[in-house]
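hi! just following up on the protien thing from before. the input was this:
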Amino acid sequence: MTFVDEHHGEHGVESICRQLPIASSTYYERKACQRDPSRHSARAQQDERLKPEIARVYRENYDAYGPRKVWRQLGREDILVARCTVECLLRAMELRGVVRSRRYKVTTSDPVPENWTTILRNSHHPKEVQNAQVAGHTEKQIVVVLKRAGRGRPPGPEIGAKGRHQ
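and the predicted 3d structure came back as:
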């Protein structure tokens, strides 16, 4: 629309619309609707009437209501509208209610605890402890290596040179 408005003096609306994939009648209809809002479709007119009401209910309830609660509040105020329309208009106005069930997690690296074998042993499920793996090694393999390291010995055949079980 703005491109056609800026250049229609030089080239004319029809020639610009011929180059663009739009009909010139579409351009003229849009311009007429901008001048006279009563030419909009019934749905567009209803949406324009509902937007301030939806925004008011949303703001009055501390920006916490989602589409369902806004729709129910509008119904209590005798403003009849479909819930899907409220959902669509809230999305169009970029309004979002508070979501209780969704927790946003920020992933941060956690250093390995000093005594992680104790943490593994204190697990509530002993079978999980036996099968627990750290960097591809079971807890039993790592305990053997730690015991050897505590005695000043190099890792044995439990863990190979690349750190994998052989």
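The chain has three domains: 1-37, 40-99, 116-150.
The mean pLDDT is 78.
cheers
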